[in-house]
């Protein structure tokens, strides 16, 4: 694995790989890597020949400066994990390499009006700006994003379509701890008690699946039940418990088509998110989480 810090070095490596006929796969991350990130690398490897991972804690997407300041970092461990996970090129730019008097930002309109977008002003603009920059720097054929950040993934699909990026976007399944907690770099900040209390997020999705399997489609019924379950884990704050349509991420009253059930809550100052996709085929609903 080669490690580079500048955009010019990335471009030189990509040029060589493209001349050699390789398909480029990109996995953007903010580091403090866990098995979820590495699963994205494995999926990128199944769909391309030369894997670029970026590690960049993008200040532009943090609406809370304390969250940015305490974002976990361990670059030595990340290098080991990326290398053994099969990354070919690890791009670790610093702030000044990525931003120099940037005036341009990327916004994807109403898709960011609900869920995390409603609670983290400016967050998604920061995400889409950095992802667009990474797309232009790396020029990948394929880029892999996690279902864990479902609003991000769905909106990036739309951005790629709208802005004609010639990139195939893959949404990878959520990797969980054996307890059911979705893996996240921010889990490092959880106390043992909070880590166990926060399992209610996953439990609420399990219950939602059970309700859907037994024929419930009324969103209020389902989200009320989920709310009781999440409150039983004494979160410090619930940001949202929402069910939205998959294509436009707008709130729905009844589950009829492909939808997303998404939750966000705080334990202490740590904000955790989780979600489930409800897909639909001829035999009925299929819950993916
Ligand atoms: P982050 O470093 O948190 O910005 O995440 C980088 C990428 O990894 C994003 O596409 C995330 O959705 C994805 N990711 C984070 N956690 C998980 C997880 N538990 N399972 C699968 N993908 C994940």
Quick recap of the structure?
This protein has 289 residues and is an alpha/beta fold. The chain contains eleven helices and ten strands. 39% of the residues lie in helices and 22% in strands.
Task: Explain the overall architecture.
Helix content is 39%, strand content 22%. Strand 5 (142-146), helix 8 (150-162) and strand 6 (168-172) form a beta-alpha-beta unit. The protein is globular, with a radius of gyration of 19 Å. The chain has helices at residues 7-19, 35-47, 65-69, 75-85, 95-98, 115-119, 123-138, 150-162, 192-197, 199-213, 219-231, and strands spanning 2-4, 24-29, 50-55, 89-91, 142-146, 168-172, 237-245, 259-267, 270-281, 284-288. Strands 1-4-3-2-5-6 form a 6-stranded parallel β-sheet, with helices on both faces. The chain has a 4-stranded antiparallel β-sheet with strand order 7-8-9-10. It starts with a strand and ends with a strand. It is of the alpha/beta class and 289 residues long. The model has no long low-confidence stretch (mean pLDDT 97). Bound molecules: adenosine monophosphate. Adenosine monophosphate is lined by residues 29-30, 36-37, 39-40, 145-146, 148-149, 172, 174-175, 182-185.
């Amino acid at each position: 694995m080669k490690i580079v810090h500048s955009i010019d070095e990335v471009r030189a490596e990509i040029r060589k790989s493209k001349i050699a006929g390789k398909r480029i796969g990109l996995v953007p991350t903010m580091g403090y890597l866990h098995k979820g990130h590495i699963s994205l690398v494995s999926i990128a490897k199944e769909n391309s020949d030369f894997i670029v991972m970026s590690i960049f804690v993008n200040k532009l997407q943090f609406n809370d400066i304390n969250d940015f300041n305490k974002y976990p970092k361990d670059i030595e461990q990340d290098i080991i994990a990326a290398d053994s996970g099969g990354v070919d090129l690890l791009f670790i730019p610093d702030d000044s390499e990525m931003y120099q008097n940037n005036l341009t930002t990327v916004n994807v309109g109403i898709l960011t009006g609900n869920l995390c977008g409603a609670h983290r002003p400016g967050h998604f603009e920061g995400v889409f700006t950095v992802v667009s920059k990474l797309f232009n720097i790396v020029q990948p054929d394929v880029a892999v994003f996690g279902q864990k950040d479902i609003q991000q993934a769905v909106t990036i699909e739309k951005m790629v379509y709208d802005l004609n990026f010639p990139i195939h976007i893959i949404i990878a399944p959520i990797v969980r701890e054996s307890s059911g907690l979705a893996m996240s770099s921010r889990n490092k900040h959880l106390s043992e008690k909070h880590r166990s209390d926060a399992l209610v997020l996953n439990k609420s999705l399990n219950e939602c699946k059970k309700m859907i399997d037994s024929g419930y489609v009324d969103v209020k019924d389902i989200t009320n039940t989920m709310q009781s379950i999440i409150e039983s884990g004494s979160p410090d704050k619930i940001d949202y418990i929402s069910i939205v349509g998959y294509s436009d991420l707008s709130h729905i009253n009844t589950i009829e088509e492909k939808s997303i059930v998404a939750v966000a809550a705080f334990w202490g100052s740590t904000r955790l998110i989780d979600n489930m996709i409800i897909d639909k085929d001829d035999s009925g609903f299929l819950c993916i989480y």
